[in-house]
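@channel anyone free to eyeball this complex?
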Amino acid sequence: MMDLYSGSAAERRPSHTANVSHGTRLRDTSTTNPAVPLSTIIGALAMDPDRDKAEANLLNLLIVDDERSIREGCRDVAQGIGYSTYIADNAEHAFRVLDTTSIDVVLLDLRMPGLGGLEVLKEVKRRRPETVVVVMTGYASVQSAVQAMKQGAYDYVTKPFNLEELRLILDRVLGHLQMSSENRILRQQVKSKEGFGAIIGRSPEMEKLYRIISKAAHSSHPVLILGESGTGKELVARSIHFSGPYRDKPFVAVDCGSLVPSLIESELFGYVKGAFTGANKNKDGLMQAADGGTIFLDEIGELPIDLQSKLLRALQEKEVRPVGGTKPVPIDVRVLAATNRELEQAVAQGTFRKDLYFRLNVLSLRIPQLRQRKQDIPLLVGHFLERLTRSTGVPRNISDDALKLMLSYDWPGNIRELENCIERACALTSGPTIHIADLPTSIQNWREQSEPTAERAVPRRGIMPISEMEKLAILGAIDLLHGDKLEAARLLGIGKTTLYRKLKEYGALQ
Amino acid sequence: MNSELSTTNASGFLATDPDGVVLDGDGVRVMRHRLHELANAFTGVMIAGGLLSQYLEGGSLEHYASDICEGSERGCVLVREIRSQLLAARGEVEATPKGSPADSIQG
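replying in thread with the prediction:
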C-alpha cells in the first residue's frame, strides 16, 4: 500500500476533512494508492487527463507557519490537489522535516517567532536548491518580496488569502514543476555528465528509467528491479538508495543466488550463540545491519521457497527471528529486490510465493537491455576507456571500425559484457588504440556472421529474409510430400506456375 | 478614514488630520504587527470557511459556512485597504504575486 502521506514529522489530517471536494470529490491520499508498480503510474500519467493531481501526488509539500489554522487549512487544500504534505510550526521543526524528507515545495510564512522565514528560505535553498519555495506574508511591500525573491523564492502570496487563491498558487507551482521536470532530469545527468549518478546512458529508454528512479528514490516502498543479467540492477538499486532520504543510512546488498542455501537464513536474520556448531557468539544478520536503511536482495528469484516465507514474515511483521533465537528483533528497512527471472512465471509455476511477489512488487522498474539502447554504447565505451586510462595512466582510445562492430553486436551479457570486452581489449592491445583484432573472438565472429555474402544475405543472427523463408517453405513442403509438387503448391496456397518458377529460380527444377 | 484620535507618542500616533492618522516609525511597526495578526486570523478563517462550505455543500448548514466566508472576505478587504494606505503613507509599493494582473515583482 502506497502511503504518500507518511513522514515522521507529518501530522495526520483529521478524518472528517478527508472528503472535502475540489471541483470533484477529492481523494484521501492517506487511504488511497493501492499497490501499483511505479512504471504503471508513470505510464498512466502520460495518458491521464487528470495528470495534475497524479503528478502532484508524488510531490512533497512542507507548510511552515506558526498559525495552526493556516497550517492545517493549507495542508487540507494541498492534499486535495494531491500533494503529500508535512507541516511545521517554526523554523527548527521545519529543519527537522527537511533533515528526514525530500521536500519539493515549501509554503513558508515570512514572519514567525524565533528564526524568521527568510532564514528558513536560505537554509532550504542551501540544502536543496531545486526546492520551490512560496513565501507568505501579512505585509507585502516590494522590498520584502524582492528580498525573498533574491534569496530564491519562486513566488509570493499575501495574507489574507482565501481557498481559491491558495489553490491557484499550488496549481501554478505544480505547472512549474511539471515544466521543469525535464530540466531537472537533464541537470541530474549533467551532474554526472553521462547519466544518472553512476549509471551511464542518455538514450530515451534511460531517461525514462532515471525519471522512475528519481520518483522511487523519494518513496519508502519496496521496489522490484527487473532486468537481464549485466544490465546494472545493483547500480540502479544504489541510485535509488543514494538519491533518496535514506542516502545517509546503510545500504546492504545481498546476492541471494550466491549464498550457500544452508547459510542464507543465518546470513539474513543472524543467529544466537549456540544455535549451531561454531556459533560461539550472537551475530546480527544482514537485515539488522541494514536497519534504518536499505537492504537490496539481488537475484531474489533464487531464494529457496522455505526462506521466502520467512522473508515475507520479516517484511510483514517488521521483525526478524535470529536462528536459534526465541525473541524477535524489530527491524526498519526499505527493501529493494532484483531479478533477471520472470517472477510472474515463477509464481505460476509455484517456485516463488505469490504473497512475497506482491509484497516486493509495490513499485517495479525494468532496466532496458543494452541492445535496446545501442546509442549509449559510445558513451559507455568512452566511460570504461576513461576509467582504465585513469587507473593505468595509459591513454586509450578505440578505432572507428572496432566501435562500429561493437555497435552492431547484440551484447547478450549487456553492460557487464561490454565492460569485460573493453578491459580485455586494453590488456591485449599493443598500442593506445583498440582495433577489431583486439576484441573477443565472439564479437569478431559476429562480424563474419553479420556481413552479407553473395550466397546468403542474412543481415543478423536469428533474422531470416522473407525470400529465404519462402525457399525453405517450398523446398521443405516438396520434400515432405515426397516430390508431389502439385500437392505442395495446393498446401502452400500458391499456383503451380508460381511453384515451378520459384523452383527454377532456386535451380531445383529437375 | 476620519478619526478623532489625538496625538500620542506612546502609541506612535503623531497627529490627526482630516483625512486620517499620521504615524511615526513606532506607530507603523505596531500597525504592521497588528495587520499581520489580523491577516493570519482571516486567512485561517477563510480557508477553513471555504473547506467547510464545500463540505456542507447542498446541506441545511451550508449558509452558516457561507456567512463565515462572506464575513471574513469583508474583513480581508478592510485589512488590505489599511495595508495599502499604510504602505502608501510610507512611500512603499504593495507587492503582487506571479500571475496577478499587476505582476510588478516578476516584471
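from a first look: The CA atoms of residues 250 and 293 of chain A lie 5 Å apart.
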